[in-house]
């Protein structure tokens, strides 16, 4: 982009402006950033719900694993549309575990009104984990309908019929 400057600013000496520094930066490869976002979401879900026996890197194929350790400005080969069915199965099981844990947490927080979830996790205010699991399902190449159906089944199984109907 062309930056027009006034004549008064041309003769000014000092450190380089932040705009010029930003323009000199290499452009990032956005799909690689999305790939990192998926990993962060997976790790946060594992931590938040104390999911046992989940290996986060098992959710990614070899190309996906290698992409995590590259510079964000480099153009990397990311996983293509063809995935190993075993990896897809592991991904689906993980997302269903997240949804189940989110519903269980919702149910237990409604029973225990003494300490609210917002007091325990103030930075999660307004976070809807089942919706986030559906969003991540797109990136992980899992059918969103499977995750949504599991969510509704979990709501009904915990007696939250009014939410299940919605």
TrEMBL record:
<protein>
    <submittedName>
        <fullName>RBGPR protein</fullName>
    </submittedName>
</protein>
<feature type="domain" description="Rab3GAP regulatory subunit C-terminal">
    <location>
        <begin position="1"/>
        <end position="166"/>
    </location>
</feature>
<dbReference type="InterPro" id="IPR029257">
    <property type="entry name" value="RAB3GAP2_C"/>
</dbReference>
<dbReference type="Pfam" id="PF14656">
    <property type="entry name" value="RAB3GAP2_C"/>
</dbReference>
């Amino acid at each position: 982009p062309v930056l027009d400057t006034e004549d008064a600013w041309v003769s000014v000496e000092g450190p380089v402006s932040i705009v010029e520094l930003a323009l000199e930066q290499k452009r990032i490869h956005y799909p690689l950033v999305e790939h990192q976002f998926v990993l962060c979401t997976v790790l946060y879900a594992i931590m938040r719900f104390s999911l046992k026996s989940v290996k986060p890197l098992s959710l990614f194929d070899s190309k996906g694993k290698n992409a995590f350790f590259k510079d964000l400005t480099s153009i990397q080969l990311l996983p293509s549309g063809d995935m190993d069915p075993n990896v897809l199965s592991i991904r689906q099981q993980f997302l269903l575990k997240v949804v189940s844990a989110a519903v269980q947490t919702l149910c237990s927080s409604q029973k225990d009104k003494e300490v609210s979830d917002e007091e325990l996790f103030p930075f999660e205010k307004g976070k809807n984990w089942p919706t986030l699991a559906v969003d991540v399902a797109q990136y992980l190449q899992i059918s969103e309908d499977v995750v949504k159906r599991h969510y509704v089944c979990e709501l009904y199984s915990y007696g939250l019929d009014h939410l299940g109907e919605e």
